[in-house]
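Hey, I'm writing a tutorial for new members on how sequence and structure tokens pair up, and I'd like a real worked example in the thread rather than a made-up one. If someone can provide the structure for the chain below, I'll link this post from the tutorial.
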Amino acid sequence: MKNLFSSVFLFLLLILGNGVMAQNMSLANAPLEAGNRHFDAGRYKEAITEYSKSIYIEPKFTQAYNSRGLAKLELNDFAGALIDFNKVLSMDPKNAEAYRNRATLKLRKQDYASALTDYDKALAIFPDDADMYYNRGIAKVVMNKKKEAIIDFDNSIRLKPNGVDTYVERAYAKLDVSDTNGAVADFTKAITLDPKLATAYYGRGYSRVVLKQNSQACADLQKAAQMGSKEARDLLAKSCK
């Protein structure tokens, strides 16, 4: 009988605890949403204040910690942001968003190897995030792992076929591994998606210089120069006399 009473008592405590937490979460949503509005408007200090209110109401509100960390990141408070992202992962070790956010922080601090580790963990949990593949690819480019970066850009494009920046980054990575024709194809796709992208015209012009497609190269470089690309103007003066 004593054991039965103890079990019932613990069960009731669990129900009450869950009920309190659910009520707290409901109350904590209002300042979270207010914080999101401030964040979207670029008012990061005000956003942090609201997210902190959410956390005060419900100390286990991982979304509020994640959001507050991002706001701190926008203010270059790297130490504060890291504390918030680490707090999320201490409560929820499979929180892909926190790994992604912490990786973004590490990219900004130029801690590329550590950022790569966090992107690996995030993608192991949530393997269908195009932006994470793109960002991991950028980290690999900086680390001179161009072939691996191209694979990440491939995956990003598979998930987000109109990601113009990804085509540009993949094109430059292909240039670095001597796939010049592949680079031209990617720059062309980027231009199709965004005809006002000077860096894509310059990249395609440079690639065509390498391929000795002189008239096409000069047309691309001229276009990029008209859009304000100094690199294009310099290469135009050198290659299109």
